[in-house]
Amino acid sequence: MKSILATRFIHWKKQRTSLIFWLLFPIIATIGIITATEVLQEDTKVPVGVVLEEETEESKELVEEIKTTPFVRIREIPEDDALHQLRKHELDSVFVIHEGFEEKILENNRSQLITSYQSDLSFAYSPVKEIILSYVQQETGKSKAAFTVKELEQQYETNTGWTFEEIVIKSNQIEQDENLLNTAFSFSGSPVKGSKNTPLFSIWGLWAICSMLSTLLLFDWVIKERQSNTRVRFAFTRWTLKSYLLQNLILYSVLFFIIDLLTVITLYAIFGEWINIFNLIVFRILLSLAAFLLAHLFKTTYLFYSVSFGLTLFVTISSGAVLPPGVTDWFWLDLLNPVLPLLSGEYLSLWSLIVILFTIVWLVRKERYHA
Amino acid sequence: MLNIQSLSKEYGKKQILNSVTLTAKSGEIIGLVGENGAGKSTMLQILATLSQPTSGSISLDDQSYKKSKKHIRKKVGFVGQDIALWEEFTVKENMVFFEKLSWIKKSEVELRQLCRDMKLEKWDETVKTLSGGMKRKLNLAISLIHEPMLLLLDEPTVGIDLKSRKEIGSYLHDLAKNHGKMIIYTSHDMDEINNLCERVYCIGNDPFYRKLLQEYGKEPIIL
């Protein structure tokens, strides 16, 4: 293996630029696409101005709540600037949270808490207003509940020793435990993650597709070395051509896996996205084997590259990026999809069986030399 | 010693080699001539274990080709008509690459010396920038890394300049006479064959080659 590694290094040295490019392509493309879509999502959000006349827990929480409104971007600015920008239609609407907001909430007083402004072009005004109303309703409700508990305590002359804050915390906990409606979205069975800014694509799904393309293209060495005149020399070396190819397949798979592990760390650090390492190992082995076997079918790299791009496009479409899953009745497409087992962890698919079967056929097949 | 007995090869119904019998000793250079398609390359491929004969037997150093193909391959060096090199590698990288895969380990100094013996000095140059003659020399040098006792050369000097041709010829002569290698050589250049080979076998029944060999003063042996 040491000798094979030495020979492979000579090849890698000659093609280091393309090798490094295609090895790093999946991670760079994934980070690039996700970041670009996030920026795009951010840029397409409607700007809404919020004026904070007091910096209290309640007022800050309300701002955080408004920020959860889909497709709304909050700008915290002084009132004069906000109204000026509203006139110029640089802001969709403006909400002024007045001084004494927290105090009034705690006193269950709902009048004159917030002043809102809108223009004839405002369209984010209504959803934001609804969010504010529901928040105020919810918070004043909690205060009211706390006051009621305190009154009952006095009426029945009991002493539970509960403070006003403890009652509010308890009601928050009950609210969370008995949430009426909880929604979550996932892509092709990918793990569900609560996030304020959910990406448009599954990060690992996108990476897997990019990785499929780079793996296929980097396995062009199989064609170049099988079609080279040098293949006849393998009859007179320590290694047969088959053994040489097999050991190089292992080397490439290890190289890819090292890059995969770096990808796991990087994507976790940037997006907080994790993947099951065992799923990743199975995905890598099957993908490397498939690229290796596919390359055996070609005599020219040009045709192989064309097929590689075509297959990647096909998998991208059938993975739900263009045609949402369930639109077609072609369930067998899912069975043949190399990306789905990575995301779902279901390894026993038609895809894995086919790859294993063809690998066995390749291993038992006799090799021939042509001088 | 190489011993070939009643060797025949057929492709379908076409008989290429018909009951060929010959022997070669250490230090001998044997020439094979014949028209295109007569079976010279087929004969070399069979001797290089790259092709199977239809019938007959071959042994090298008393080891049968049928029984010990793997051991035979360690003793055989083959230089085909096509140049089998990595074009984008340098001379050094090509030598190191095939040394790493070889049964015999050689240092870089030894590999370089092998090239120098063949008057191939451009150690760090990329193969694609080399002349045809240099490429042929490197092609031959790589086939000698594992120190074969039988060297099979299929038109090794085709398309190269006279100087390189002479240098290769002189090197092959040295290999046979001073290092005891057996060399079987095919070529269409009758001057080359005449200068280098002690025995010349004529493959096929073409009277042209028989007559030509007689003109060069060689007794043709018909296979």
TrEMBL record, chain A:
* Compartment(s): Cell membrane
Transmembrane segments annotated in the record for this chain: 20-40, 201-223, 244-271, 277-295, 302-327, 347-364
How is this protein positioned relative to the membrane? Multi-pass membrane protein
Q: Which domain of life is it from?
A: Bacteria
Q: Does the keyword Iron-sulfur apply?
A: no
**One Pfam assignment:** ABC2_membrane_3
Signal peptide (residue range): none
- The primary site where this protein sits is membrane
The record places domain ABC-2 type transporter transmembrane at 18-322
Keyword Transmembrane in the entry? The reply is yes
Q: Which Gene3D superfamilies match?
A: abc type-2 transporter like domain
Q: Which UniProt keywords apply?
A: Cell membrane, Membrane, Transmembrane, Transmembrane helix
What protein am I looking at? ABC-2 type transport system permease protein
- Supply the source organism for this entry: Virgibacillus litoralis
Tell me the lineage of the source organism.
Answer: Bacteria, Bacillati, Bacillota, Bacilli, Bacillales
TrEMBL record, chain B:
Query: In the record, what terms sit under GO molecular function?
Result: ATP binding
Q: Which domain of life is it from?
A: Bacteria
Q: Where is the ABC transporter domain?
A: 2-221
For this protein, the record's SMART domains field holds:
AAA
Q: Could you list this entry's UniProt keywords, alphabetically sorted.
A: ATP-binding, Nucleotide-binding, Transport
Protein family: Belongs to the ABC transporter superfamily.
What name does the UniProt record give this protein? ABC-2 type transport system ATP-binding protein
The species this protein was found in? Virgibacillus litoralis
